[in-house]
Amino acid sequence: MQFFTSLYLSFALLAVSVRGDLHPDCVCNNGGTYNWRMTTVACTKYNDAGYQWGGSTYDTPSGRCDAASGAQIAGKEWEAACKAIASSGFQCVDGVGTCFANPDSVRGSCSK
User: Fold this and answer.
1) How far is CA 35 from the centre of its chain?
2) I need a surface site. Which of 34, 66, 74, 101 has the fewest CB within 10 A?
3) Tens digits of residue pLDDT in 89-105
4) CB 27 within 8 A of CB 39
5) 46-53: Cβ within 8 A, 24+ apart
6) CB atoms closer than 10 angstroms to residue 50
7) What pTM does this model have?
C-alpha cells in the first residue's frame, strides 16, 4: 500500500511540475532584447513539433507566439525552439540574408 501511495504522489508531483511551466504566449530574447524575427520562426518550429500541450501561432499585432485555442506553450520546449533558431538562422533586420545568434545568449520568455 505504501508503494502505491508513493507512486501516486510521484506522478502527481510530475504532473504539477510539467503543468507549472505552461504558458499562453512566449517570445524569444537575444541578449536580453526581444527579437521578433527569431520569435516568428521559433513559433512555427514549436507548432510543427506537435507537442502534447498543443500548437501555436504567431500573432503579428502583439509580436508574440500564442498558444492555439485550448493549448499551452511549454517553457522549456519553447526556449529550445528559440535556441535552435539562433543556430539555424533567421531573417536579418535589413531583410537581406540570414542572421545567426549565439544560442547561449538566447532565452525564451513567456507570460504567466
Assistant:
1) 14
2) 34
3) 999 999 999 999 999 99
4) yes
5) 46/73, 46/77, 46/78, 46/81, 49/77, 49/81, 51/77, 53/22
6) 8
7) 0.82
Q: How far is CA 98 from the centre of its chain?
A: 21
Cell of 71: 493549448
DSSP-assigned states of every residue in 51-63: -TT--EEEETTTT
- Report the candidate in 90, 101, 75, 93 with the shortest Cα–Cα distance to residue 38: 90
Residue-wise pLDDT tens digits, 5-43: 343 433 333 343 344 699 999 999 999 999 999 999 999
- Report yes or no: 86 and 30 within 8 Å, Cβ to Cβ: yes
Q: State the virtual CA torsion across 46, 110, 102, 51 in degrees, nearest 10.
A: -20
* CA–CA separation, 96 and 47 (whole Å): 25
What span, in angstroms and rounded, lies between the C-alpha atoms of 61 and 38? 16
